[in-house]
Amino acid sequence: METFQVLRKMLIFRFCQLDSGGTAVLALAIVLPAILLLFLRKGERSRTSEDEDGFPRGPWRLPIVGNLPLFLSLPHQSLAKLYFEQGHGAIIGLHLGVQRAVVVSSAALARELLLTHDKAFANRVHFSFADHLFYGYGRAVILSAHTPRFIHLRKVYMLELLTARRLHDMREARYIEGRRLLHHLRDYSGTAVELGAVIAEMNANAMGRLMQSKTLDEVAPELPELIRAMQNLTIPTVGDFVPAFSLLDIITKIRMKKLHQRIDLAFDSILQERSRLMETVPPEQLPNDFLQCLLSRKQDNDDEESISPVEIKAIMLDLFLAGIDTSTSTVEWAMAELLRNQECFEKLRKEVDEVKKGELRYITDEDVQKMPYLYSVVKEVLRLHPVVPLLLPRISSEECKIEDYILPKETMAFVNVWAIGRDPKIWDRPEDFYPERFEMRETDMKGQDYELLPFGSGRRMCVGIRLGISMVSVTLANLIRFFDWELPPNQSASSINMSEQNGLGSGMACPIKAVPYVRSGFLGSSFL
Fold it and tell me: What transmembrane ranges does the database entry give (predicted)?
């Protein structure tokens, strides 16, 4: 009955995520007897961990659900233990219900998968949340197959929003929100603040300015909260791996659809506000922002260059989701690590002060280019706490061979960048926060050095890497420059909870609180 007990735990975990009241109990009462009967008929049979068709070996698996229990809680850590502690290789074969999958946990195999076989693994997996929570598989860039449409939309991102010149032209929009954050912290000087919350608000409004020249507070104030709510639902369902159990996902899909409807209304309000502006203002006076670029391509015909209204909203959701949560999480982890490592904190502050010596102004992109230790700190944070520890999974479009293994068509692939970042074969003191390691090696995180891949690599590499690094670096430098930081009473550096929340991302399970004090030399500064 071991399989039954494991599946029961999986279902309880899923339903408790959705509803803490009677719905979970009712659902379990309905489905568990049927599942129990199914297992009684099939019997409890052990499965070998080795296949005869050249597929990589993996851990022992249960009937029907296979290795899905590994994904119940912090899967990147569970899978890393298989490699580091239980003698499995750097490529592990899994059976997730009816779906075959592999996990690679070494830099060499990551290079083979993401470079040698990049074309074969260029497609994203089509999970049900893409259809019920997002705007559909293939509507934007993050959740899409590698099609000509994907290539066109990615080109729009790169040419209209994410070029170096475009980001330079729009940098002041981000700086305005950065200064607002500093003013907010000054007003709360001496009071504990939840760092993740205030940084997320800044990032949300900065992305709003980049996208549509206004903060979300002005047009869609509820959107940041809705996007945060997506984190608990942007995960595969039971039916994604065991189609026979799709009935168990009904409550999940209802929750997804309800949240999507609220998100869709928020984006409708943004588009309606811009439509009213376009009706009353001459074209030459319209904002030169990304939303206007998308609307200029909006047509009602089948022109390949056109972008439909649904695609516009899907693109906006992609950008807000990626731009708010990822940068926020990285800055929060950085502050936690620096507060736990005062020598690193003081070394970074010394560098920041030296670059801005004699100036009281806000630190900009041009300034952080002169701060190599700051860049080392950011790399070290992303080594230990990559934004998406398993990257977003890919799925193969053809059979291919990695090492001596045959991966058939439609094999799902995960790259465990969390494990690669902690591999003792690559890193000295892999569990320690030690930014100085990057002063002695040329490793970068732009997709060419496979031992450090927080943004991925190849055709599906994150298009927002330049913007993400800028937002994190500038925010962190200003927090260190203008404020002294203390932990709340009764908390020490060693007691900071560094555990991770469960999900596709790696945010902090317990949001960190810290007390800002304006540094004595900046008491009269306006942070200009």
Answer: 20-40
- Encode 149-203 in three state secondary structure: HHHHHHHHHHHHCCCHHHHHHCHHHHHHHHHHHHHHHHHCCCCCEEHHHHHHHHH
Q: Which residues contact 198 (CB under 8 A, 6 or more apart)?
A: 181, 184, 185
Q: Which of 208, 200, 270 is nearest to 228 (CA)?
A: 200
Q: Say if residue 344 carries a ligand binding annotation.
A: no
Task: Give the strands of the sheet with 193-194, arranged side by side.
Answer: 193-194, 513-518, 483-486
Encode pLDDT of 98-156 as tens digits: 999 999 999 999 999 999 999 999 999 999 999 999 999 999 999 999 999 999 999 99
Q: What is the 3-state secondary structure (H, E, C) of 60-122?
A: CCECCCECHHHHCCCHHHHHHHHHHCCCCCCEEEEEECCEEEEEECCHHHHHHHHHHCCCCCC
Predicted confidence band of residue 367 (pLDDT cuts 50, 70, 90): very high
Q: What angle do CA 451, 455, 458 make, to 5 degrees?
A: 80
Task: Specify the CATH number for 46-522; select among 3.40.50.620, 2.60.120.10, 1.10.630.10, 1.20.1250.20.
Answer: 1.10.630.10
Counting every residue, how long is the chain? 528
Looking at residue 302, what is its pLDDT?
A: 58
Say if CB 205 and CB 180 are below 8 A apart. yes
Rounded distance, CA 460 to CA 234, Å? 19
Q: Residue 16, Cβ neighbours under 10 Å: how many?
A: 11
Convert 256-284 to b/e letters by CB count within 10 Å (16 or more is b). beebbeebeebbeebbebbeeeeeeeeee
SS (H, E, C) 2-30: HHHHHHHHHHHHHHHHHCCCHHHHHHHHH
Query: Tokens representing 262?
Result: 């609220």
Beta bridge partners of 400: 407
Domains of the chain by residue range? 1-45, 46-522
